Amino acid sequence: MIDAIFTYDFLQNAFGAGLIIGVIAPLLGVFIVVRRLSLIADALSHVTLAGIAGSLYLSQSVAVFSALNPLFLGIAASVGGSVLIERLRTLYKHYEELAIPIILSAGIGFGAIFISLAQGFSNDLFGYLFGSVSAVSREDLLIVVAIAIVVLAFIVVFFKELFVLSFDDEYAKASGLPAKWIHFMFMIVTALVIAGSMRIVGILLVSSLMTIPVAAAMRVSKSFKQTITLSIIFGEASVIAGLISAFYFDLAPGGTIVVTSILLLLLVLIYKKIAVSVKRGAIA
Amino acid sequence: MDAPLIEIKDISFEYEETKALDNISMKVEKGDFLAILGPNGSGKSTLLKIMLGLIKPSKGSIKLFGVDSKNFKHREWIGYVSQKSNSFNSGFPATVKEVVAGGLAKKAGLFRRLPKTVDEDVLEAMKSVGMEAFLDRSISELSGGQQQRVFIARALVAKPKMLILDEPTVGIDHQNVQAFYDMLAALNREKNITLVMVTHDVDTVTDRISHVACLNQTIHFHGFKEQFQTLSDEERASWYGHSVRKIHHAGGGH
Ligand SMILES: Nc1ncnc2c1ncn2[C@@H]1O[C@H](COP(=O)(O)OP(=O)(O)O)[C@@H](O)[C@H]1O
Ligand SMILES: [Mg+2]
Prior knowledge:
Chain A: It holds the Pfam family ABC-3. Chain A: It is found in: Cell membrane; Membrane. Chain A: It is a multi-pass membrane protein. Chain A: Its main location: membrane. Chain A contains 14 helices and no strands. By secondary structure, chain A is mostly helical. Chain A has a single domain (about 1-205), classed as ABC transporter involved in vitamin B12 uptake, BtuC (Orthogonal Bundle). In chain A, α3 crosses α11 (about 180-200). The N and C termini of chain A lie far apart (about 50 Å). By secondary structure, chain B is α/β, with parallel strands linked by helices. Chain B has a domain at about 5-85 and about 160-240: Rossmann fold (3-Layer(aba) Sandwich), CATH 3.40.50.300. Chain B contains nine helices and ten strands. Chain B has helices at about 45-50, 95-100, 105-110, 120-130, 145-155, 175-190, 200-205, 225-230, 235-250; strands at about 5-15, 20-30, 35, 60-65, 65-70, 80, 160-165, 195-200, 210-215, 220-225. In chain B, β9 (about 210-215) and β10 (about 220-225) form a beta hairpin. The model of chain B is unreliable at about 240-254 (pLDDT under 50). Classes of the chains: A mainly alpha, B alpha/beta. The interface of A and B includes residues 168, 169, 177, 217 and 224 of A.
């Protein structure tokens, strides 16, 4: 494997991007999960699909787009979608969750139209839906690096505010923290992570990489910091094992990564169950 | 003389259809221990949220520490303990220590880390609510009453000059309510923290407070506890009766 990475550029790109995503997706995912926004991640990934499909369609007819990495339009759509979701959430105050199916369907709707308009990219499409080991370009990798820098900077700089806001948003507002702004930036950053992770895990599975490692970490951690650490470890382990098996068995990495994370989750649940009964036994 | 810590003038507020507060004026002076009384739906929580700047009144003005609330920059001077369970996200994976340290976020300031003394500050706040043994426990494992104490510690950790509490004893069992109010009274007396508290425990709390406000959309009474105690039952009942009708009216559609 190591040899192969040194031999093939595309593997360097895929592994580089994968290792980075294995950190930032679960890291941001911790906040997404505790704030009960998991479905928003799903909605945004489908909007990203619409952007990418739109870009691929336009690249067949408009010269500017043929030179443009479709990821850019995907990022733009995702960020736009996050802003729209916020608008809809304030519009439907008592039915905030309604924003999610609206945006999600809009994403799939536009995506389907662009995909059928632009015939003949079913190969690309498969990669965008389920991830790809071979299709990650050097430019994709650089985009992922840039996104990771933004995300890490955001979380490091606003960590204490994000924590308070996630735990109790009314308290955050009452204590005078700029809750609205932080939430707004959080949504943008989420959109960026989704667009960036999409190349490796695919649109349909991006939100899984943000939530499943966190679901596992939450079962066994006591503190918030520990939840973050374990989420990243589980996420990174899933990405590494998933990419290696995708490469050797010629499978879609989105599938192998997510299935690995599910297996890890199962192991954690079993471990927890045994740990609890051992503890009970010790007390009894 | 110091400016009042809270000065509210002619405030009204309505939720989409419901009128919640009607032309309210009141002052809270430094050192007061004010209990706000009133039946359910009388606008008590709404009034606290207006004091905290969580919602904006449709009319009237608020000054905090002598400064117009719009220009008030020191929210860390005011600690808030909200009506239980509405905003905090149960099952949250955090230790009590992390939650209480969150109370320092505003005081530390944007782009800054929490102070180096965070551990001692948290310990001190937890001691003042008698919960220092629970620092490393997970917040979701605690009972309702214990969580409530943690939230008070979170409000205390930034060393506020004033605490605003919304029905803080809901979820605390009967035997512990007395001890809880003793703790608040000690904060008021020893640390000179001004307290504004919404409560239903009129009888339990009267020994410890200094002022009473009776609210039901408007302020029916606001003054020293001693004055409140001289009021006749009929007088108090008249507000309550009024309130009962109001509630009945407002709640008719639900
Ligand atoms: N978010 C809200 N939306 C609409 N109406 C509300 C809202 N919150 C409170 N109300 C209404 O405003 C009135 C006052 O509520 P509140 O201040 O919570 O009363 P209290 O705290 O005294 O029980 C009630 O009639 C209540 O139904
Ligand atoms: Mg209330």
